[in-house]
């Protein structure tokens, strides 16, 4: 595959389209990677309406922020091979600009759900610093994945959080609950709870203070927990027998 | 003998002395519920403000709800060590809804004005219903070590 990056017209968001791990996708991206001209890419894009539905729509979203019926002139779609979501992978980028008819990306494939892959790839794409994904063990009935990311500045964190919400809103089905950003007024720590995944956007200094990764990987053996003195009852504690009603 | 009196007092607690000579009935109002102003609370995180001893225990001086009653997940204002600090109620002694845990002490976690918890770890079990409630509880759940 060749790395080819064309002119960037505006530095708005691009969603990585090969987030979905499927063998079909790999073939498609390989085909894509081998072609050079815009026309060929365009043709291929036409052939893959469902696959690029999310990426097109989200790019469009970023460009216009309006309904899906508007055309746009430049579109960039990136494809990246990521075998291991936690390791840095070499990306293959390809860019094309053309007009796409909006009817092609109104239909979503069942693969385009807001999964962990989608979230991780969009965080990577947003230049998140120190991305950490922890799989929560089954016996803790909190979530499935616990993600901690750092950012360069508070504005960066906020931008990442808002973009994640935006992508989630696009990819969610009717039955999924709405998700809000918790800690909006705290500029150094924001959380989003996506049901199965919980993302924490922290500044590096805040991350050092709380050490959430240590807590969630070590659980009971965490250093800060161990250094807490054992609980003793306060002097005025009275264990009352229930006398109400 | 005291049966008509007993039937009249349908609210509150009836205390009956065992003495047969005279019957005294106390009418007591029902417990106001959970956490309100001037309740003493227990700070359960590992913040220095919550754990250093002081001659007065931390008390609630304001409850940030419509009525002055604080349940799990409500913010309160505490007076700790001569200063005011906001806190989040984690559990209370009053029985709550069905299938929610009831604690033996009124537990509270100190938070800052922007919502960040003051301490970094919580040893005490935290009720999982906080996750479903409306409000910014993910940060407190993130520093918790055990859930109930």
Automatic annotation (TrEMBL), chain A:
Record keywords: Mitochondrion
Protein family: Belongs to the Iojap/RsfS family.
Designated name of the protein: Mitochondrial assembly of ribosomal large subunit protein 1
Coiled-coil ranges per UniProt: none
InterPro entries, per database record: Iojap/RsfS/C7orf30, NT_sf
Cited SUPFAM superfamilies: Nucleotidyltransferase (SSF81301)
Superkingdom classification of source: Eukaryota
NCBIfam families: rsfS_iojap_ybeB
Subcellular location: Mitochondrion
One GO cellular component term: mitochondrion
GO BP term, pick one: negative regulation of ribosome biogenesis
Reported function: Required for normal mitochondrial ribosome function and mitochondrial translation. May play a role in ribosome biogenesis by preventing premature association of the 28S and 39S ribosomal subunits. Interacts with mitochondrial ribosomal protein uL14m (MRPL14), probably blocking formation of intersubunit bridge B8, preventing association of the 28S and 39S ribosomal subunits. Addition to isolated mitochondrial ribosomal subunits partially inhibits translation, probably by interfering with the association of the 28S and 39S ribosomal subunits and the formation of functional ribosomes.
Gene3D superfamilies per the UniProt record, alphabetical: Beta Polymerase, domain 2 (3.30.460.10)
Tagged with keyword DNA repair: no
Organism of provenance: Amphiprion percula
Alphabetized PANTHER family for the sequence: IOJAP SUPERFAMILY ORTHOLOG, MITOCHONDRIAL ASSEMBLY OF RIBOSOMAL LARGE SUBUNIT PROTEIN 1
A Gene Ontology molecular function term of the record: ribosomal large subunit binding
UniProt KW Mitochondrion keyword: yes
Automatic annotation (TrEMBL), chain B:
Gene Ontology MF terms: structural constituent of ribosome
Keywords: Mitochondrion, Ribonucleoprotein, Ribosomal protein, Transit peptide
SMART domains in the record: Ribosomal_L14
Highest rank taxon of the organism: Eukaryota
GO cellular component terms attached to this protein's record: mitochondrial inner membrane; ribonucleoprotein complex; ribosome
Record localization: Mitochondrion
Principal location: mitochondrion
InterPro entries documented for this protein: Ribosomal_uL14, Ribosomal_uL14_sf
Alphabetical GO biological process terms: translation
Recorded family membership: Belongs to the universal ribosomal protein uL14 family.
Entries under HAMAP family matching the protein: Ribosomal_uL14 (MF_01367)
Official protein name in the record: Large ribosomal subunit protein uL14m
């Amino acid at each position: 595959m060749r790395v080819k990056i064309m002119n960037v017209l505006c530095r708005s968001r691009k969603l990585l389209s090969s987030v979905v791990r499927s063998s079909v996708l790999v073939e498609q991206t390989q085909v894509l990677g081998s072609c050079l001209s815009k026309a060929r890419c365009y043709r291929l894009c036409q052939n893959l309406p469902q696959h690029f539905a999310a990426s097109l729509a989200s790019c469009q979203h970023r460009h216009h922020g309006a309904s899906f019926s508007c055309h746009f002139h430049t579109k960039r779609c990136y494809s990246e091979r990521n075998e291991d979501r936690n390791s840095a992978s070499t990306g293959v980028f390809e860019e094309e600009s053309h007009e796409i008819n909006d009817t092609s990306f109104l239909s979503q494939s069942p693969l385009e759900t807001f999964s962990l892959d989608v979230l991780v790839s969009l965080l990577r794409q947003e230049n998140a610093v120190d991305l950490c994904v922890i799989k929560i063990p089954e016996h803790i009935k909190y979530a499935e994945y616990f993600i901690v990311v750092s950012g360069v500045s508070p504005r960066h964190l906020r931008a990442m959080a808002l973009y994640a919400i935006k992508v989630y809103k696009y990819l969610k089905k009717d039955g999924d609950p709405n998700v809000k950003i918790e800690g909006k007024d705290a500029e150094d720590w924001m959380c989003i709870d996506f049901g199965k995944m919980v993302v924490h956007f922290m500044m590096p200094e805040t991350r050092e203070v709380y050490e959430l990764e240590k807590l969630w990987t070590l659980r009971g053996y965490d250093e800060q927990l161990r250094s807490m003195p054992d609980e003793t009852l306060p002097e005025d504690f009275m264990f009352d027998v229930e006398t109400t009603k | 003998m005291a049966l008509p009196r007993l039937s009249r007092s349908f609210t509150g607690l009836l205390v009956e002395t065992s003495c047969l000579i005279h019957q005294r009935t106390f009418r007591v109002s029902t417990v106001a519920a959970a956490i309100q102003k001037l309740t003493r609370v227990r700070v359960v995180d590992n913040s220095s403000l919550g754990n250093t001893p002081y001659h007065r225990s931390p008390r609630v001086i304001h409850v940030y709800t419509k009525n002055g009653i604080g349940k799990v997940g409500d913010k309160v204002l505490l007076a700790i060590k001569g200063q005011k600090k906001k806190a989040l109620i984690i559990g209370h002694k009053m029985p709550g809804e069905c299938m929610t845990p009831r604690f033996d002490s009124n537990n509270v976690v100190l938070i800052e004005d922007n919502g960040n918890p003051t301490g970094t770890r919580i040893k005490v079990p935290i009720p999982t219903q906080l996750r479903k409630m409306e409000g910014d509880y993910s940060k407190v759940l993130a520093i918790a070590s055990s859930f109930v």
